[in-house]
Amino acid sequence: MFRWLNGPGAAFRDPLPGSTNYLNAYDPQGNLIRARAARATIRSTGEEDPRTAGDEDGPDGPDVALGRNHLEQNIAGAKPIPKEMADDLMPFPLNRQFRSQPVLSEELREEIYRRINQEKKSVRTVSAELGVEMQRVGAVFRLKTIENQWIEEVRYNSFRHMKLATVYGLRD
User: Fold this and answer.
1) 21 and 90 in contact (C-beta within 8 Å)?
2) For the whole model, what pTM was predicted?
């Protein structure tokens, strides 16, 4: 098991930002299949892969380190990895009919929460504006609400424990 984790499985230790990290997207050596295909296209034709055309900085901005076994890091003009293909969105190798939806970035989730919570827009409006399904927008809003409640709870409990430690002389 550790041999796999330190070898091909190392690609899963540092997942690609904003991307699914399913086994089907990698070959047995731990190399990203779509990155290998893009390199082969560039080598054979001398042209870049159309999925990366016009995306000079990649989906997450310039100079994003993509981790081990992915295309070279965006240093010295290397091209970013191609966008996910349908085969990359298949988490269950034996169920070839199921395709998951792409991962929503943290920025998009924050934007959904902000528009519903602060701007008081409806789920339907936010869904139409951002092109995300209504059910997903609702789920993102509920989960971000729970996440914010937990953060506040941790802050409150941390403050409370500090106060009790000070009162009882347990603090330095």
Assistant:
1) no
2) 0.55
